[in-house]
Amino acid sequence: AVVSTQSTGEASSDPPATIQRIKDAGMKAGCGIKPNTPVEPLSDLAGSLEVSLVMTVEPGFGGQKFMVDMMPKVEYLRKEHPDSNIEVDGGLSPATIEHA
Q1: By C-alpha distance, which of 52, 83, 84 is closest to 70?
Q2: What Rg do the C-alpha atoms of the chain give, in angstroms?
Q3: Helices in the chain by DSSP H: which ranges?
Q4: Quick one: 38 exposed, middle or buried, by C-beta within 10 A (0-12, 13-18, 19+)?
Q5: Residue among 31, 25, 85, 91 nearest 58 (CA)
Q6: 4-51 per-position pLDDT tens digit
Q7: Contacts (Cβ under 8 Å, ≥6 apart) of 64
Q8: pTM of the prediction?
Q9: Could you give the CA distance from residue 97 to residue 49 in angstroms, rounded to a whole number?
Q10: Centroid of chain to Cα 59
Q11: DSSP state of 22
Q12: Residues 23-29: contacts with CB within 8 Å, 24+ apart?
């Protein structure tokens, strides 16, 4: 089973503790960032996550174009965490998949 939660409000004041509570409950933890969020905070957590997600569109609005300028964030995560599961979400199509 996969349990997904999304917070669009105030972020956790202690993300490592939140990740640990998720894992203590027998679940896997993941975290995503929106396009305007710097990648470094996600990178700091990536070693304790099962998946890191880089949004390639602004969430909540359908039909947006893939933001290729988000791919350096993926490249940064891949360099810093070569064995991590890294995903992108938004605007993917046969025309954009080669960039992802």
Answers
A1: 52
A2: 14
A3: 15-24, 40-46, 71-80
A4: exposed
A5: 91
A6: 555 544 456 788 998 999 999 999 999 999 999 999 999 999 999 999
A7: 57, 58, 90, 91
A8: 0.85
A9: 24
A10: 12
A11: H
A12: 27/3, 28/2
